[in-house]
Design a protein that fits this description.
10 helices; Rossmann fold; alpha/beta
């Protein structure tokens, strides 16, 4: 293995988000958010999700869950059997956290192929374990994937941020979505198909030029930058007791930001 690859591996292990283990952080009593990067997980090294959430006022623990087995994005994108197996491991981690803190909110944020793992993990939850919100960014899941089973385990909403300018997902149309379809639009391009009766449960937000002020230029992964997470994603999951400078509940403020686009 090349020296640069070893460096990446060391950093990933240092993050404490490996699929086979769960690190209990000091912030866990205040809530939990799992973050899943895309194929090859290289983006987790530069993701602004943890710091952006803290700047938004989130007091809970943010854990990066490593689900990939390769430094080659194509391998992770196409090896669906591994993605589904890792989804099962994530589901068990979510359940263990719920057992420790049954009254706390659990959120999941995922990028690209990691969105498939996130959705499947929510589908695999057992007992009374539920998540609050599921946020999908640049999703390489097919746009018509049936999320009704996942919705049955979600108390809040599925938020989908999508862009027609995502060149990576144009390639996914050829090589295949994380759920194994070719020649179809990804949810990260056109949004997620809303099942009948779920109109209030899925929020599709398309990229517009106004998102440039938060650093999202419509690309595949720039929506994980610190500024976008702080101002757009963070308000969707921070505790209801937190307030903005205007005195408005942060959750309502986040929904207002999304509605403005």
């Amino acid at each position: 293995m090349r020296q640069s690859a070893w460096r990446v591996l060391v950093v990933i292990l240092a993050l404490g988000g490996g699929a086979g283990c769960q690190i209990h952080g000091a912030a866990e009593p205040f809530g939990k958010t799992f973050y899943l990067g895309g194929a090859s997980n290289v983006d987790v090294l530069v993701s602004g999700v943890p710091s952006g959430l803290r700047q938004a006022g989130y007091r809970g623990d943010v854990q990066t869950f490593i689900w990939t087995i390769s430094f080659n994005p194509l391998i992770d994108q196409l090896l669906t059997i591994n993605a589904r197996a890792r989804a099962g491991l994530l589901a068990r981690q979510i359940e263990r956290y719920h057992q420790r803190y049954p009254d706390n909110e659990i959120n999941v944020i995922a990028l690209s192929a990691g969105t498939g793992v996130a959705v499947w993990a929510v589908e695999k939850l057992h007992g009374d374990t539920r998540v609050n919100n599921l946020i999908l960014l640049g999703s390489s899941l097919s746009h018509d994937y049936d999320v009704r089973q996942a919705l049955g385990r979600i108390d809040g909403k599925i938020y989908v941020y999508h862009s027609p300018h995502d060149s990576v997902l144009e390639a996914v149309r050829i090589v295949g979505t994380i759920d194994g379809k070719r020649g179809v639009d990804s949810a990260g391009q056109v949004g997620l198909k809303v099942p009948p009766g779920a109109e209030q449960d899925i929020v599709n937000t398309a990229w517009t030029r106004r998102f440039l002020q938060y650093g999202w230029a419509g690309g595949h992964s720039d929506c994980t930058n610190e500024r976008f997470v702080r101002h757009v994603l963070g308000p969707l999951i921070v505790g209801p007791g937190d307030r903005t400078l205007e005195g408005q509940p942060r959750r309502a403020a986040g929904q207002a930001v999304a509605a403005a686009y």
